[in-house]
Amino acid sequence: MNAPVALVAGGSRGLGLLVARELLQRGHRVAICARTAEDVDEAAQILSAHGTVRGYTCDIAQRGEVEAMLASVQAELGEVDVLVTVAGIIQVGPAAAMTLDHFDQAIGTMLRGPVQLTWMVLPGMRARGFGRIGTVTSIGGVVAPPHLLPYATAKFGAVGFSSGLATELAGTGVTSTTIVPGLIRTGSHERALFTGDAGAEYAWFAPGASLPLLSMSAERVARAIVQGVLAGKPRVSLHPMTHVGTRVHGLAPATTVRALGVVGRLLPKGHPGPSGPTVSGRQAAAQLSSRVVTGLTTLGSRAARRLNQR
User: Fold this and answer.
1) Are the C-beta atoms of 270 and 94 separated by less than 8 Å?
2) 242 confidence band (pLDDT: 50, 70, 90)
3) pLDDT single digits (tens) 24-62
4) Is residue 54 a contact partner of residue 20, using CB atoms and an 8 Å limit?
5) Could you state, in order of their start, the residue ranges of all structural domains in the chain?
6) Which position among 56, 151, 156, 194 bears the catalytic label?
7) Residue 249 belongs to what H/E stretch?
8) Is residue 296 within 8 Å of residue 204, measured between CB atoms?
9) Other C-beta atoms lying within 10 Å of the C-beta of residue 273
10) In what order do the strands lie in the sheet with 82-85?
11) 10: closest CA among 43, 42, 32?
């Protein structure tokens, strides 16, 4: 009997790379996809030591590319039994500096992408009476943080889609798991995009995504994700801050919004309309040129090197 097939969207780096590795170590044949061929090729080479892996270049926001990629996966590996969508894009900056393009990119990757992937693998899963679907959302999809509005918009939609899907699939043998992590040390601050005062935005975001008390080990998160998805759990919440933030927001949503508004007023200010180009984390770090911030992001930068973020 052939080993089950798992597809990890966004599996070329960061958390997705570790989720793919965890599935390989559990005996799955794994397909990974990402937008950049170079990232996919490097990730496939890294993962090949752990089992059968195939890499595909695909922008999951584009329906035609998803259809073509899934046809290739089916031809080379077989029907998808497990789908985990990790692909994401982080855009950091004040709402005044965001454009509709920022929203299009975020919603395309983190909402339309999971919907399209799921809708294309779901008929086969239903017909076989078995399937596991996991969608990585965020605490930012439960409580909207300041200076991450396109991200929160897309993640709120992903939470609603994944949670609602779990209800719709009850009794079919197919499950939908909503994964709600907090900050994770994956080196994502180097690939994140910054706008407004990019250097100043990087100065608060990068340490938060790197310091141990604020962020979780990516390896630990990947194990928990795979365990929860394969077990068919409807929800996997990770990090104490996620549990606390969800409960506090549920009990006192207006107070939570006001408190986050105060936090937002302490963050770098923006101006109406784009106040500067959107740059990568590495470019923003170069603009900032701060030894203090570099020191605070040491663990995150090590993760970036380890997890194909460079």
Assistant:
1) yes
2) confident
3) 999 999 999 999 999 999 999 999 999 999 999 999 999
4) no
5) 5-188+215-252
6) 151
7) helix 240-251
8) no
9) 9
10) 53-57, 29-34, 5-9, 82-85, 131-136, 174-180, 235-237
11) 32
Residue type, 262: V
Using DSSP's 3-state secondary structure scheme, residue 132 falls into strand
Which 3 state secondary structure label does DSSP give 68?
Answer: helix
For the segment(s) 5-188+215-252, the CATH number from 3.30.365.10, 3.40.50.720, 1.10.540.10, 3.40.1190.20 is 3.40.50.720
Phi/psi for 217 (5° steps) reads -60, 130
Query: What letter does residue 110 receive in the DSSP assignment?
Result: I
Joined together, the tokens standing for residue 290 give: 């701060």
151 part of the active site: yes
Mean pLDDT of 164-184: 97
- Residue 34 has which token pair? 């990402």
- Distance (Å, rounded) from C-alpha 168 to C-alpha 127? 15
Tell me the one-letter amino acid at 251: L
The CA distance from 156 to 288, in Å, is 31
Residue 1: predicted pLDDT: 63
**Cα angle at 192 between 10 and 206, to 5 degrees?**
125
Cβ contact 86:135 at 8 Å: no
Amino acid identity of residue 128, one-letter, is R
Structure tokens at 198: 């990019």
What's the rounded Cα separation, in Å, for the pair 180 and 236?
Answer: 6
Task: Name the residue type at position 70.
Answer: L
The full DSSP string for 20-50 is: HHHHHHTT-EEEEEES-HHHHHHHHHHHGGG
